[in-house]
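Ticket #4471: structure output looks truncated?

Reporter: J.K.
Steps to reproduce: submitted the chain below (233 residues) through the standard prediction queue, then opened the result file.
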Amino acid sequence: MLEVRDLHVYYGAIHALQGISLTVNAGEIVTLLGANGAGKTTTLKTVCGLLRASRGSIELDGARLEQLAAHQVASRGIGHVPEGRRVFPRLTVLENLQMGAYLRTAKAFAESLEHAFKLFPRLKERTRQLAGTLSGGEQQMLAIARALMARPKLLLLDEPSMGLAPLMVEQIFETIQTINREGVTVLLVEQNAAMALSICERGYVLETGSIILEGAARDLVNNDRVRAAYLGG
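Returned output as attached by the reporter:
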C-alpha cells in the first residue's frame, strides 16, 4: 500500500531524514520506533504532505505523492493524527469533526459521524463542548476521530499515548486495533515501544534519520539492542 523509497528531508542545513525506505502493506499495523529527534515525526509529516522531500519517492497504491500538497494527499486516502493532538481548541467537538470531513458529502459526513461516536461514545456526550476544555484523553479521541471522518485507507498516528494515564493508553490502543480490524491500515509512531510492538505486525527503528533495524514485531521485541534502548533491558 505505502512505499517510501530513499527519502531525504532537510530542515535548513540539518539532514533530518537520510535515505529511509519503508513499506506498509494493506491491513497492517506498522510501528516506527526511535529516540526523540530520530526522524519519526518528520517521516509522517513528509508522507502526509506537510513537509517536502528533497529526494526520494512516496507511493500510495502505486500513485506518487511526494509532490502533492497536504490536502491532496488527504484526498488520496491518508489520515494524520499529529503529535500533541492539535485539536482546534476554540471549536466544539462537532466542529472539529466537521473539519475532518471537509472533503465529504453531507450524507457521508453523517455516516462518518455515527462511526466516530460508535468508536468514542464520550465524544457524543460532548458535541457542544469546546475542544480546548476536554481532558488530554478526550482530545486524543477527538484527534483520532477527526482523522477518521475522511474515511482514510491509511492512518498515520504520531505518539497517541503521549501524556495519557495508563488506563486511557490501553483504551486508545484497543481502539487502534479496532480501527485496523475495520480495514484501516496503520503507521504508528509511539514512545511506548512495548505497547506498540504488542499490537503491530512489523516495525522499523530510526536513529538520527536512518533506519538501523527492521523486522517482525516478535523479532524486535527479542532484539538485544531494542530491549536495551526501548524496553528497559
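Triage note (M.O.): checked the attachment and the full C-alpha cell line is present. The chain has a mean pLDDT of 92.
Status: closed, working as intended.
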